[in-house]
Structures are given as C-alpha cells and as structure tokens.
Amino acid sequence: MTHQPDDRTPEERSGGTDDAKRPLDEEAAWLEIVANYGERPEMGPDVALDAEASGKPAPSEPAAPSPSLFDRTYLDAQLQRAEEDRDDVGDGPVPWDDEGHYVPPPPPPLPVLEPRRKAAWIGLFGSPLAMLLGIVFGWTYPAWVSFLLVVAFVGGFGYLVATMPRGRRDDWSGDDGAVV
C-alpha cells in the first residue's frame, strides 16, 4: 500500500461549511486590526453582572480615580498617617523573650595518627609538592632522590588503600539517618 500525498486544504478535506468556502479577505482583516489598535472596550452593564456573581453589591457611582503618587495632598495624608502609626511604637529596643541560645559542644580533638600512617600521608602529599617546587624553582634532584619521591608517593598511596576499613562502620546503628 502506498501513501498518496493529499494536496487539499484542511477546509476541503473536512467537507467545509459555508464559512470555510467563503474567501478570506486577509488585507481587510489586518486593516481592521490596525484601525482598532489601542482602543479599549467600554465597561458597560457587565460590571453589575460581575458584582452579582461575586456577591458584592454593584457600585452606584463610578469609583474615584486612585490618587497619583505625585499628588501633594495624597503624599501629605500618607505621611501624617505614617507619623501617627510611628507614635504608637516605643522608641526603645523590643523586649525579646531570650530563651537562651544553643552553644555546641567543643569538637573532639583530632585523632593521633600512628607513625606509619603519618608517613604515608606525608609521602602522598609531600612527594608531589617537592617535585612541583623543584620544577618551579628549577632545582635538579639527583636520580636517586627523584626515585625515592616516586616510591614514597606510590608507597603512601598503596599503604593508605591497603589499610582502609573493609566493611561499613556500624556507628550509626545500621541507619544512615540523623542521630539525635
């Protein structure tokens, strides 16, 4: 089965109605849109219908325009109202109910490392640092010092990986959540 392309317009395919068969005057539609651009519809009797739907009585007279921010009498009234509200508040500090504040306990001291582990950490970080300083300052190390730095780095890394704990620590009672 092959598919034949359909060259008909959507109106022709749907059978169309009289409106679909009527030619569309696109230019006239654009001219009407441009001619009415910027006009706002008048608020007519729909305001009363909206008020009835919301349960509020319809306004008997149009609302007064809201005062402009540049209106001097409006600004003076707002300033007077703010000064009256400010007079109600005391000048002193607000008395807070101080319930105390939380002071955390001091942190535990760092654990003392065993000498082999300390040497492994020094080899892991000290060797690359020594090589970097040699490159930056142009120092030349003898071959045996460079070899020892590489061995210290690899050995420190290997020792730290080999002495890592194998299983999970059960400090949290088998739960990964918060401990209170």
Question: Can you put this structure into words, describing what you see?
Answer:
This protein has 180 residues and is mainly α. The chain has a domain at 115-162. 48% of the residues lie in helices and 0% in strands. The chain has 7 helices and no strands. The radius of gyration is 42 Å and the shape is extended. The two termini are 72 Å apart. The mean pLDDT is 77. Residues 1-100 are annotated as: Disordered. Residues 1-25 have a biased composition (Basic and acidic residues). This is DUF308 domain-containing protein.
Task: Outline the secondary-structure elements.
Elements lengths: L9 H4 L4 H4 L4 H10 L10 H9 L17 H17 L26 H23 L5 H20 L18
Brief overview, please?
Residues 1-100 are annotated as: Disordered. The chain is mainly alpha-helical.
Structural class: mainly alpha
Cα Rg: 42 Å
Main β sheet profile: none
Number of strands: 0
Organism: Nocardioides iriomotensis
Biased composition (Basic and acidic residues): 1-25
Keywords: Membrane, Transmembrane, Transmembrane helix
Protein name: DUF308 domain-containing protein
